[in-house]
């Protein structure tokens, strides 16, 4: 017996209904099993954004990437992922969320095979673009499915906490697993590992998620809006990456920046006039929604930039191999995962999302402050281990931001709010990698020209980049203090 369509959205809820003779308790367990499937899919997709980081030197050596071209191994995935999330979320509303989830997992898994088989830079980057498209389809609908599955505020809070835990730990664990796979089997296996996981999650989704018909494709999807936001994001990242060569104030850089702003402004204008916008602008009128998304973009830019740069520092300056790099990052993964899973929900219930968010941000800023004093040969225990502990604050900040970002959205805007939240996460990651990597490379080049040896020049570049990252986090704290408001207890979840 299926449930009727939700009057708020016009789509059937994704909650599996209790069949004849099925008690409420098994039906409740079935929802948690479904959540486990969604978390596994999210873990695979988020993990893939970071698992490649420790494999970058091996990929560069094997495929012949240039230093600037190598960043597109990461950015091709994140830009397509982030740029297509809003369009993918709308497709979920129209075609049914389970169908879009399954399509995304299939595309992602097939593209992972192509990544692992790549023999040229162009082939790998193209496959990474396809991976990003599949990841967008799957991720855009996941949070909306969870919100529909868990209608009780307490259960929904625990479910979102578990989902946020997946996001918080996936990026960190990716580097550990990436190191082990790269050294043990070769860089190709950081992509091949997705194949069995993707197959298992597809089987689980078919068995545990109810099929919802959606609103129907005749209601229309704003394809032009999707093209504008994706092109604008891609051009923005390209503008930042090429600034290292041409200069931040050069005519070329300024022209590209103007073009990217024009595309993004065109997207906003399109959303104001489209019959079926990807992002109804009324969503952005909710203070906590737009505030949480801005704070998240700054936080994720700093955190993902950290993950890329610290892995490169360990290998290029300290001489760690891929496995040693992954193991050195393991305390950070444990701190983030443990805090997110065990501590964050309890603290949010007691103190509220805003307070917990600020606590997490302060912890991460403290970690960045330590990184600005990075040396080329300092002991791991005193120079890096404290950072790994302090960045555990990310495990507090991200679940709190998830709750804040969804707290003010209307029921019929839940898909758009979810898509926006995922979009800013991916855009923040792409921009953080591009910007912090560019600052590090530019500073290192200047120090080489001044006669410093390679290790010291690279370390100087990384210190500057981490200083910029600390500035992003301080800005996030100021925004959180000025913009975000406490969520009333009865409206949490």
UniProtKB/TrEMBL annotation:
Q: How does it sit in the membrane?
A: Multi-pass membrane protein
Entries under Pfam families matching the protein = MFS_1
Residue span of region Disordered: 1-23
Localization, UniProt: Cell membrane
Q: Which UniProt keywords apply?
A: Cell membrane, Membrane, Transmembrane, Transmembrane helix, Transport
Limits of the Major facilitator superfamily (MFS) profile domain = 34-488
Where does it mainly reside? Answer: membrane
SUPFAM superfamilies registered for this protein in UniProt: MFS general substrate transporter
Q: InterPro entries attached here?
A: MFS (IPR011701), MFS_dom (IPR020846), MFS_trans_sf (IPR036259)
Does the record's keyword annotation contain Transport?
A: yes
Q: What parts of the sequence cross the membrane?
A: 32-58, 70-88, 100-123, 129-150, 162-181, 187-209, 221-241, 247-269, 290-314, 326-343, 355-371, 383-406, 427-444, 464-484
What Gene3D superfamilies does this protein map onto? Answer: MFS general substrate transporter like domains, Multidrug resistance protein D
- Output this protein's name: DHA2 family efflux MFS transporter permease subunit
Lineage of origin: Bacteria, Bacillati, Actinomycetota, Actinomycetes, Streptosporangiales
